[in-house]
């Protein structure tokens, strides 16, 4: 969806709108009252086709639902505003978003990517993009290496910040400055922070993408993706592919995700505050070897968080290493009562997992450990439950996992007590 000219926000550098701050935009962008009924909430428009008054003249804005429909348009408008973009396009998943962007590159193109990208992105780059002649080079230190890795064929630089699951950060501006000298586009996967905490386009990125499945929808009940950007040329290319490939979300999913957007600021802030409490408690625990959380002053790239994240917030995701190896990490995830042992992230409910055995099991052990993904690493997605309850849950599960309270079992067996 393109934001119409009167609403368009200039291309960066651009100050935030003085009138519509994030929370107001989250609630109102793309959400006008129905002009006929006054309904404050948009109806779900299930019609796959739209009547035309004469040949080639649709009555309204839409013709056929794959090309555009009212619920997708409303969601795309909301995301364009929240990411300070002129355009946003929604897809059936975060992975389909990645696929559409990679499909827009000509055969023979080269991409430079950070090493610890989302597993599915790594799979697409190495197993699918390569099959249509797009080559991807991975680097663990992109700010240092990018210049040397750029070739005349390089068309795209792919950044995920914070990275998964080690939460290391990339200075988007530093990379974009180098990329733009030779007209290379920078894509930032902003899934881990959501547009509330980070707006990559303001730091020089050309495209920002999200797995909407995570924070934007936020309720673990929709699979969807979105890309946002400012360039008219990109809009033409990506809009064409969105329709031609057809990996688009349903009107119902768009409606649900748009409902999620309206509380994004409340959820992202609370999740981040909760993660900060949990991270501080973990850092103080004698049973914890290391804590990866960008909101901690001890994080080695905390300065980037202060520069790129709203109010220096660390987001809702963190990871930590337990003394006691893989057995302790596994046991921890089986002992928590509020954190549910499951993959995914960004929902209202807290989740925990062991990346080495779950989300990142597909990566060979040496490669994994070189990236900091040891078998004793636990990843947490903090939800919006009470922060003190989350801290107590984590500390209690650590005590059980480390075995210092053997015999003190209090009646709740292994597993999760859903509160
Ligand atoms: C989940 C995720 C994706 C893929 O999104 P899907 O909606 O599951 O296809 C991409 N990037 C990141 C960082 C993710 O967490």
UniProtKB/TrEMBL annotation:
<keyword id="KW-0198">Cysteine biosynthesis</keyword>
<dbReference type="InterPro" id="IPR015421">
    <property type="entry name" value="PyrdxlP-dep_Trfase_major"/>
</dbReference>
<dbReference type="GO" id="GO:0019343">
    <property type="term" value="P:cysteine biosynthetic process via cystathionine"/>
</dbReference>
<dbReference type="GO" id="GO:0005737">
    <property type="term" value="C:cytoplasm"/>
</dbReference>
<keyword id="KW-0028">Amino-acid biosynthesis</keyword>
<dbReference type="InterPro" id="IPR015424">
    <property type="entry name" value="PyrdxlP-dep_Trfase"/>
</dbReference>
<dbReference type="GO" id="GO:0019346">
    <property type="term" value="P:transsulfuration"/>
</dbReference>
<protein>
    <recommendedName>
        <fullName>cystathionine gamma-lyase</fullName>
        <ecNumber>4.4.1.1</ecNumber>
    </recommendedName>
</protein>
<keyword id="KW-0663">Pyridoxal phosphate</keyword>
<dbReference type="GO" id="GO:0004123">
    <property type="term" value="F:cystathionine gamma-lyase activity"/>
</dbReference>
<dbReference type="GO" id="GO:0030170">
    <property type="term" value="F:pyridoxal phosphate binding"/>
</dbReference>
<feature type="modified residue" description="N6-(pyridoxal phosphate)lysine">
    <location>
        <position position="214"/>
    </location>
</feature>
<comment type="pathway">
    <text>Amino-acid biosynthesis; L-cysteine biosynthesis; L-cysteine from L-homocysteine and L-serine: step 2/2.</text>
</comment>
<dbReference type="Pfam" id="PF01053">
    <property type="entry name" value="Cys_Met_Meta_PP"/>
</dbReference>
<keyword id="KW-0456">Lyase</keyword>
<dbReference type="InterPro" id="IPR015422">
    <property type="entry name" value="PyrdxlP-dep_Trfase_small"/>
</dbReference>
<comment type="similarity">
    <text>Belongs to the trans-sulfuration enzymes family.</text>
</comment>
<dbReference type="InterPro" id="IPR000277">
    <property type="entry name" value="Cys/Met-Metab_PyrdxlP-dep_enz"/>
</dbReference>
